[in-house]
Amino acid sequence: MIRPATVARSADDYALDDQPGFLLRVALKTHTAFLTAGMIEGLTAPQFSTLAKLLEVGPCSQNHLGRLIHYDSATITGVINRLKIRGLIESVVDPLDRRRVAIDLTERGRVVAADAIVRIREISRETFSALTTAEREALVALLKKVIRR
């Protein structure tokens, strides 16, 4: 059991507003608010990530796509189902191995993904407008280092 005096001493120099994890959460909340307000077609952040990654890498398995954008199986399944209903992605059978199914963008999905990328650049500029170009590049490099990419 931790004694109250120990807790008080160790907590004296702790300021929540200076903690990276807290700041990351608040920064993400800020960016998500801009994204929700300004993204085309009412796309959510997970839906946008899915479309953008498919545009980048082309058709791939649902499992691989989920790993590429860091979503668990349940999350990517739900996102894919909603995007299929909207006609933005489809399942395609691998012509070389009919047992394999890949997820791919529809023609409409390609257009929406490209337009959404233009919009996310504007949203990101708004989110990070207080940073210089060098600071933004440093932030990206540091975040990649934290997530070990």
TrEMBL record:
Top-level taxon of the source organism: Bacteria
Span of the signal peptide: none
Transmembrane segments: none
InterPro entries, per database record: HTH_MarR-typ, MarR/SlyA-like, WH-like_DNA-bd_sf, WH_DNA-bd_sf
HTH marR-type domain sequence ranges: 16-148
Pfam family, one: MarR
GO BP terms, alphabetized: response to stress
An example molecular function term from Gene Ontology annotations: DNA-binding transcription factor activity
SUPFAM superfamilies attached to this UniProt entry: Winged helix' DNA-binding domain
Protein name: MarR family transcriptional regulator
